[in-house]
Design goal:
Elements: H1 10-23, H2 29-47, H3 69-75, H4 79-82
Helix pairs in contact: 2-3
Length: 83
């Protein structure tokens, strides 16, 4: 899934994947899809901060957007939300 993504290679990438697997234990397919969507939206907002503040149509370059482990961690619900 993530082996070609920037920052997900090597030993650090393997640790990120293990950590993500630990935090998403018990997630079903729809939960994982929602998490990936939210992480992608976080990455877009980080790369293009004006995306949600502008009413103009913006031309985004998908190849410049990198989804990081941090984007996934921000997307995970807090322990109080999960209860």
């Amino acid at each position: 899934m993530t082996k070609d993504w920037e920052g997900w290679q090597g030993e650090e990438g393997a640790e990120s994947i293990k950590g993500l697997a630990k935090f998403t234990k018990g997630y079903g397919g729809a939960d994982l899809q929602a998490l990936c969507t939210e992480a992608t939206l976080n990455a877009i907002q980080r790369r293009y901060p004006l995306t949600y503040r502008s009413s103009d149509r913006l031309l985004l370059k998908p190849e410049t957007i990198g989804v990081t482990f941090r984007d996934f961690m921000i997307s995970l619900p807090s322990p109080t939300e999960a209860q």
